[in-house]
Design brief:
This protein has 163 residues and is α+β, with helices and mostly antiparallel strands. The chain is built from three helices and 13 strands; from the N terminus they run ααβββαββββββββββ. The strands form four sheets. Strands 7-6-11-12-13 form a five-stranded mixed beta sheet, with no helix packed on it. The longest helix has 23 residues. It starts with a helix and ends with a strand.
Length: 163
């Protein structure tokens, strides 16, 4: 066997080993990242996946208020602690998550009205509508007040992904 043949074999073996180690050593978050279908925006962990304003005429009934919601999705495999995170509209109405953990590959719906919190549904316990039907922005921030995601609809469209 020639020296150049041995060097090529060692180089090939090293490249294969690096490829295998590199694949195994990738952090789980890199494999878990997903793209928002609307704009190709990357969401590292948690994002606003849906918004619904109260349908029909606003009656201020609890039933009507609970048809108004924002969905928050965790697209990683790990549970994310949302304790202290906030969800706010552009007027400053703010909901603070309290002792809530969003499971991996899960979605929680945050309703405006009153109700009993469950793993999949949380309630702001408000008596009036929060989300403006014509134009608004829902903003999600972590427990340090750092921007996580937002979504906007209507004329003002101040950023975020459109609905």
């Amino acid at each position: 066997m020639s020296a150049s043949s041995s060097v090529r074999r060692l180089t090939a073996a090293a490249a294969i080993a690096v490829g295998i180690v590199g694949t195994v050593a990738l952090p789980a978050t890199a494999a878990d990242r997903d793209h928002d279908h609307d704009h190709g925006r990357r969401h590292a962990e948690v994002f606003i996946s849906g918004v619904q304003q109260a349908p029909g005429w606003e009656t201020r009934s609890n039933r009507s208020l609970n048809k108004e919601w924002v969905e928050i999705t965790n697209n990683t495999r790990r549970t994310v602690n949302l304790d202290g995170w906030t969800l706010a509209d552009r007027e400053g109405h703010t909901y603070t998550f309290d002792h809530y953990r969003l499971g991996g590959r899960s979605t929680v719906r945050v309703h405006t009205g009153m109700g009993r919190d469950t793993r999949t549904d949380l309630y702001q316990d408000r008596r009036t509508s929060v989300w403006d039907r014509h134009a608004d922005t829902a903003t999600l921030r972590n427990d340090h007040g750092r921007f996580v995601d937002d979504t906007s609809w209507g004329r003002h469209h101040e950023g975020g992904h459109r609905r």
